[in-house]
Design brief:
It holds the Pfam family Hydrolase. By secondary structure, this protein is an alpha/beta fold. 44% of the residues lie in helices and 10% in strands. Helix 8 links the parallel strand 4 and strand 5.
């Protein structure tokens, strides 16, 4: 058995971008004031950028939410255009799923330009479609992003249980679980002061992408359906 589809979070799951986001936050705090630290950034990993911007403003950064949000996104986007920091082994998994006929969908709270940049720098054709910040009103941990991903593939109702969702953050895992997908947590690669618990809401965990195959992901789905 293979998954019906694979839904991929981007930051921290496909790419090691979290350090760049936190570098951007620190740069704006240094330039425009505010009590902010790298540790604070790691504690809110996975939080949508406008919410991060509001937190920074609440702690003294002298910019508006929209201006700070756009500034942080532009900072990260420029870095990623120079070099997309793929997590080791992840493109092998994405490519193997594609070759096995399993659709890959990028599901991210990042804006469209950043989602399209990641897809453009991946092997050609491995992603079938994507859901980004502009596509859904409600963000993770709401289930809306993953439900939108399923809808793009015509997957309705309980059939989303036959799909795997691959995530690294607590808010992302909650979103995917609430949507009904068979949710897999990446627990061993990304540094975080608030990592996903191995006893969290996800169905299963993997430490790294090494050894992860379409068959293994399909086995997770089968095991869940048999419960």
């Amino acid at each position: 058995m293979l998954p019906r589809a694979a839904f991929w979070d981007m930051d921290g799951t496909l790419i090691n971008s979290e350090p760049i986001w936190h570098e951007a936050e620190l740069w704006f705090a240094e330039q425009y004031g505010g009590d902010w630290s790298e540790e604070m950034g790691w504690k809110i990993t996975g939080t949508p950028v406008p919410q991060v911007a509001q937190m920074m403003i609440d702690r003294g950064t002298k910019l508006g939410v929209e201006e700070l949000t756009e500034g942080i996104i532009d900072f990260v986007a420029k870095r990623e255009m120079e070099h997309m920091p793929w997590i080791p082994g992840v493109l092998d998994v994405v490519s193997a799923l594609h070759e096995a006929g399993v659709p890959n969908v990028l599901v991210t709270a990042s804006p469209r330009a950043m989602a399209e940049s990641a897809i453009a720098q991946a092997p050609a054709g491995v992603f079938d479609t994507y859901v980004c910040a502009e596509d859904v009103k409600e963000k993770k941990p709401d289930p809306a992003p993953y439900l939108a991903a399923a809808a793009k593939l015509g997957i309705e109702g309980d059939r989303i249980r036959e799909c795997v969702a691959l995530e690294d953050s607590a808010v992302g895992l909650e979103s995917a679980v609430r949507a009904g997908a068979t949710t897999i947590a990446l627990t061993g690669y990304i540094h975080s002061d608030n990592p996903p618990s191995k006893n969290g809401p996800q169905f299963a965990c993997v430490e790294t992408w090494d050894g992860v195959t379409p068959k293994l992901l399909g086995d997770f789905v089968r095991q869940r359906l048999e419960k």
